[in-house]
Amino acid sequence: MKTDEPGVPGPEPAVAAAEPAAAALAVAGGEIGRASLWDDAWRDLRRRWVFWASAVFLALVAVMAAVPRLFTSKGVNEGCDPNSAKLGPSGGHWFGTDLAGCDYYAHVVHGARPTLLIGVAVTLFAFAIALVFGMLAGYYGGLLDALVARITDVFFGLPFVLGATVILVAFPSHGVGAMTLVLVLLGWTTMIRIMRGQVISVRDADYVQAARLLGASDARIMARHILPNALAPVIVVATLNVGNVIAGEATLDFLGVGLQYPQVSWGLQLNQAKDAFVDHPHLLVFPAVLLSATVLSFLMLGDAVRDALDPKLR
Amino acid sequence: MWRYVLRRLLQAVPVFIGTTLLIYAMVFALPGDPIQALAGDKPIPENVLQTLRERYNLNDPLLVQYGKYMWGLLQGNLGENYTGQKVSEMLSGRWTVTAQLAVTAWLFELALGLLLGVWAGLRRGRLADTLVLGGTTLLIAVPVFVLGYTAQILLGLHWKVFPTAGTDDGWPMSYLLPGMVLGSLGLSYVARLTRTSLAENLRADYVRTANAKGLSRARVVGRHALRNSLIPVVTYLGVDFGSLMGGAVVTEGIFNLPGIGQQVFQSIQLKEGPVVVGAVTVLVLIFLLVNLLVDLLYGFLDPRIRYE
Amino acid sequence: MTTDLGKDGAPLLAVDDLHVRFDVRGQDVRAVNGLSYTLAEGETVAILGESGSGKSVAAQAVMGILDTPPARIARGSVRLRGEELLGLPERRRRAYRGDRISMIFQDALTALNPVFTVGDQIREMYQVHRGMRRKEATAKAVELMERVRIPSAARRLGDHPHQFSGGMRQRIMIAMALALEPDVLIADEPTTALDVTVQAQIMRLLAALQDELRMGMVLITHDLGVVAGVADRIVVMYAGSVAERAPARELYARPAHPYTRGLLASVPRLDRRGAPLVPIKGAPPNPAALPPGCAFAPRCPRAEALCSAEPPPLVTVAPGHESACHFAPEVHGAAAE
Questions:
Q1: Contact in structure between A125 and A117 (CB atoms under 8 Å)
Q2: C-alpha distances in angstroms, B147 versus B256, C124, C140?
Q3: Which residue of C has its CA nearest to B230?
Q4: Nearest C-alpha of chain C: how many angstroms from A313?
Q5: Could you tell me if B206 and B109 lie in one domain?
Q6: Which of B14, B125, B141 lies nearest to residue A150, judging by beta carbons?
Q7: In what residue span(s) does the ABC transmembrane type-1 domain sit (chain A) (predicted)?
Q8: Is any Cβ of chain A less than 8 angstroms from the Cβ of B236?
């Protein structure tokens, strides 16, 4: 149904009434609008099974990463017996044993931490960069904006896996910190582009103009009026991004340029066992299923949040 | 139109320089001896290291090093490995394999992706739509190497639908399975983009006009709505070429296809850092070039862009 | 004019008791509730109403371009020279669209396809409906663009819509709609998106072409100013129903519905200089939950208990002048003073 036609022209509001009207507009745009958007989104989200399924699974993986001892009594590379290598799943070893005869279940549990840590850390750093620089560039425009845009273009010109491969081959360290650094370097561009676009589209909105008219400072306008209204799409992309980073990191581990033995991660486990997949498929199945399910959960969570935040896409 | 082409070419120059400088700086300007770092923990004789240091001009200032390196690169000099073999020679016979794989994957993701996207876009909110959305999310979530091994074991070894590995059966047979694995990620994005974009365009005012003109449904969808929906898809195809080449490293490794990607894959395992750097830098350059071409094509597809 | 004239004496276009409903997430939204009007050759009927009054939906129902679902034509009939259009097979219906009954839209920038040249879009009419070849269609398109007074038409054929000014774009829209010399033109807010000076040019152009082609025109608008000069008869819509129906002069002079009176009082008029402008209080009702009685009652200054209990019938207050108000004769009488 069409609702966008202008109504029957009413009388113009008197000029004297402009200021209170502007104040009301600023409040409506900055605060009431925000509250109801997130409230509505949450009410909508609560009703989706996809949201709950992914949230519950991710909570499980998070606990696994935080306190692996809850799931297994064995430490990393502990109690390995080379004589019982490559055993299939059994009562003693739920997920079987790996090439070195270590309990595969314990390894899969311990693999959650670096995987999740890198995925979340990379996204948080990229999110922070996007928030600060995307906001400043979008709000002030001009030289700063041009500079940010050009630098973004350069980093965007580097494909994720290829870029990370070439950098990591020469990188002096391959720990969780180093991986996070390299992946932030290659992955910060998506969110800042969206943030900047959002800020530019919100910057000239009536309620922002109104706030400016009332004498609000730049900092206050950015924090109270622009940020809340520009944030939604960035949060959606951030959620999806965690999944993508985890998949990318696992690929680098698998290629052999990521985390190195004796560290443990799902990608690394798959790398070490890759020549034995054909005869011992359990070595492929368990880490792969957990890895894929974790990525899938982040993607579904992001999709659900997007649908909840943007009703017109339904 | 020519102004658009010219502007786009000029814009590409800083990106080109910035990207290659970035790679160069990350590889050769980090603290420590880059030549030793490239070898990892592999023992390299001191005289070989010394030769390489000279080869990469590591005693010059960074920008001079970079300049000399790029100059060599543009002349086809991709560096040497630790035994003095030229990287460009190691790669020379491998380009056709990678090209065949990339074309197979591209055709696959474009054809099937568009088909699924249009199908879902026309039936938004119904079963077909849900199936396409769910299926593509799943494909995106499974990392390409997991998908590769799974497909190889199930479709190649168990059910023998496709050759397991190698290029003995030639194109297209040997390239079908690796091509599908490689194209699966792109396929998912193409399908989702097409679906969303088509569904949006079907609600556009100009589609209502097309209906009011008395055009058939096929013409309204196939000519008016689809043409507009293809614009974001084409843009994506350029970006996707980058992940396609990253994926080629994995896929050629798994399916034992003797292409550029396999060389990179093996060189990583053998800790032949200089080979990896040389080969991947070329791939990045190709990516930038393809992206430029796609952007120019975009100008033809969307007339609004040309006159900005 | 086309050959089958239908039953003798049948009006060019007759819309009778049209009801359109939307299924919006399980809610039954009544967008149009019993719209009726007739249109004769060369005549202009204006459908006047604010946004959400159902006037655009009604027009799209007449054209047959509503998305069904979610829309549904629940009842009513649309006859073109006596031939019932509702329920015609889609192929027949499609052949009429653009050929015998055409439509132009509010915002030509979005209503024209951005990726095709205007030449492509005008030619398409001849190629699809008349099976013309490209060359022949091009010649017709140039002729047509000259007819709607686009300067250097032949050269501009290869331009895209965004390269034209707003007024020129609307002319292209008009050219496209009139390509096949239709019997009926539905103009949905044809000038709303334009500057005032350009508005007048477009309305004059439409009037001239209407005379030339002896077309009937349905002019849909919310703008009393646009209606004043061109409409022969006016249908005022409120919340999906007809509030009042009268010849244009009669409606302006003696409105017989409080809503129409409110509309006239809320815009400045040259003939009432110095009179205060009075806005209509409140907002139109939610079409998903229309009040049981008169839809205008909650905003009506003279509503009584009867109004919110019973929907008012259309009553004739003067020849050709009907009003859906329980107090129509009184309102009509009062307006004469």
A1: no
A2: 15, 47, 57
A3: C115
A4: 14
A5: yes
A6: B14
A7: 112-302
A8: no
Tell me whether residue B271 is in a domain. Answer: no
Q: Can you tell me whether residue C151 is helix, strand or coil? A: coil
Determine, for residues B214 and C94 on separate chains, whether the beta-carbon distance falls below 8 Å. yes
Report the helix count and the strand count for chain B, using DSSP H and E: 15, 0
Residue pairs between chains B and C whose CB atoms are closer than 8 Å: 74
What are the residues whose beta carbons fall under 8 Å from the beta carbon of A278, sequence distance 6 or more? B153, B157
Contact B22 A292 (CB under 8 A): no
Cα–Cα distance measured from residue B60 to residue C115, given in angstroms and rounded to the nearest whole number: 53
- Other chains touching C, judged by 3 or more CB pairs under 8 Å: A, B
Q: Which chains border B (3 or more CB–CB pairs < 8 Å)?
A: A, C
Residue A16 lies in a domain: no
| CA A219, A223, A229, A234 torsion-angle sign | positive
Residue B142 has pLDDT above 90, yes or no: yes
In a domain, A80, yes or no: no
- Based on the structure, what is the number of domains in chain B? 2
Evaluate whether B250 touches B144 at the Cβ level (below 8 Å).
yes
Chains within contact range of chain A (3+ C-beta pairs < 8 Å): B, C
Q: pLDDT tens per residue, chain A (314 residues)?
A: 333 333 333 333 333 333 344 444 444 444 445 557 778 888 888 888 889 999 999 999 999 999 888 888 787 777 777 787 777 787 777 788 777 778 888 888 999 999 999 999 999 999 999 999 999 999 998 899 999 988 998 888 888 888 898 888 888 788 899 999 999 999 898 899 899 988 988 888 888 888 888 888 888 888 888 888 888 889 989 999 999 999 999 999 999 898 988 888 999 989 988 888 888 888 889 999 999 999 999 999 998 888 888 755 44
Q: Is B264 helix (H, G, I), strand (E, B) or coil?
A: helix
- Token couple for B256: 């034992």
Cα–chain center distance at A228: 18
DSSP A184-245: HHHHSHHHHHHHHHHHHHHHTSHHHHHHHHTT--HHHIIIIIIHHHHHHHHHHHHHHHHHHH
The answer to whether B243 faces chain A, any CB pair under 8 Å, is yes
**Parent domain of B79:** 1-90
Query: Tens digit of pLDDT for each residue in B192-237?
Result: 999 999 988 998 899 999 999 989 889 999 999 998 998 888 888 8
Q: Tokens 């290869």 — which residue?
A: C158
Cβ separation B214–C103 shorter than 8 A: no
Judged by CB atoms closer than 8 Å, whether chains meet at A161 and B246 is answered as yes
What DSSP assignment string belongs to C71-134? EEEEEEEEEETTEE-TT--HHHHHHHBTTTEEEE-S-HHHHS-TTS-HHHHHHHHHHHHS---H
pTM, two decimals, is: 0.83
- Chain C partners within 8 Å of B307 (Cβ): 162-163
One-character DSSP codes across C272-310: GTTPPP-PPPS-PPPTTS--SS-TTGGG-TT--HHHHHS
* Whether A1 and C51 lie within 8 Å, measured CB to CB: no
Contact present, A224 and B236 (Cβ < 8 Å)? no
The count of structural domains within chain A is 1
Q: Are residues B63 and B148 in the same domain?
A: no
Assembly ipTM: 0.87
Residue with tokens 């930038």: B288
pLDDT over 70 at B279, yes or no: yes
Q: Are residues B177 and B207 in the same domain?
A: yes
